[in-house]
Design brief:
Number of helices of chain B: 0
Order of helices and strands of chain A: EEEEEEEEEEE
Helix content of chain A: under 10%
Strand content of chain A: over 45%
Shape of chain A: globular
Radius of gyration of chain B: 13 Å
Largest sheet of chain A: 7 strands, mixed
Oligomer: heterodimer
Number of helices of chain A: 0
Number of strands of chain A: 11
Structural class of chain A: mainly beta
């Protein structure tokens, strides 16, 4: 089946530092990846859409200069939390959408295991 | 007002019994996704529905999308402990794949 990995699975950092989170589709190509944020006992909130070869599009209220997204290839997107502060502590989850080529799973969307960020 | 409502918020079911979770949208859906999540972990893809009246099944889980494409249900037959977790429906309103999620349903399966 379609597998999406995230690295790291958890990270603790000091306030003011930057943290990079990687999202990889392991066995399929994903022209589009998404980044979500989840607070404790709440549902997922979409942060941004990451398109291979173009700039990411951000949801209203998400600071693009704080959450830098790069979609370097059809299997890799990265989210960098710049100058992290305690309020950025959260569970970040990426998803990858199946593009063309596999009709049976076209448009299906698979999620990574998440990255728990704690900013001290 | 909420565009996507999921119910119930939580469900306790005895092992072997059936359960149903509903997801209702105030707008017509392009697609509806069902996922399962264990607290603090990623989402496990269950099913995606795109056509009005569509129904899909996998093992003991069946999902349906109504003809109007505004309401979906997830039904589990003869629940097992492995079915415990948080079930989330995600709505795609415009084919872009940007999902808006329901609040989730916590399912507990008792012996």
């Amino acid at each position: 089946g379609a597998v999406v990995s995230q690295h790291p699975s958890w990270v603790i950092c000091k306030s003011g530092t930057s943290v990079k989170i990687e999202c990889r589709s392991l066995d399929f190509q994903a022209t589009t990846m998404f980044w979500y944020r989840q607070f404790p006992k709440q549902s997922l909130m979409l942060m941004a859409t990451s398109n291979e070869g173009s700039k990411a599009t951000y949801e209203q209220g998400v600071e693009k200069d704080k959450f830098l997204i790069n979609h370097a290839s059809l299997t890799l997107s990265t989210l960098t939390v710049t100058s992290a502060h305690p309020e950025d502590s959260s569970f970040y989850i990426c998803s990858a959408r199946v593009g063309g080529g596999t009709l049976s799973s076209y448009n299906e969307q698979f999620f990574g295991p998440g990255t728990r960020l704690t900013v001290l | 007002s909420q565009e996507l409502e999921q119910s119930p918020q939580s469900l306790i079911v005895q092992e072997g019994k059936n359960l149903t979770i509903n997801c209702t949208s105030s707008k017509t859906l392009y697609g509806l996704y069902w996922y399962k999540q264990k607290y603090g972990e990623g989402l496990i893809f269950l099913m995606m529905l795109q056509k009005g009246g569509e129904e899909k099944s996998h093992e003991k889980i069946t999902a349906k999308l109504d003809e109007k494409k505004q309401q979906s249900s997830l039904h589990i037959t003869a629940s097992q402990p492995s079915h415990a977790g948080i079930y989330l429906c995600g709505a795609d309103y415009n084919s872009w794949g940007k999902l808006q999620f329901g609040a989730g349903t916590q399912v507990v399966v008792t012996p």
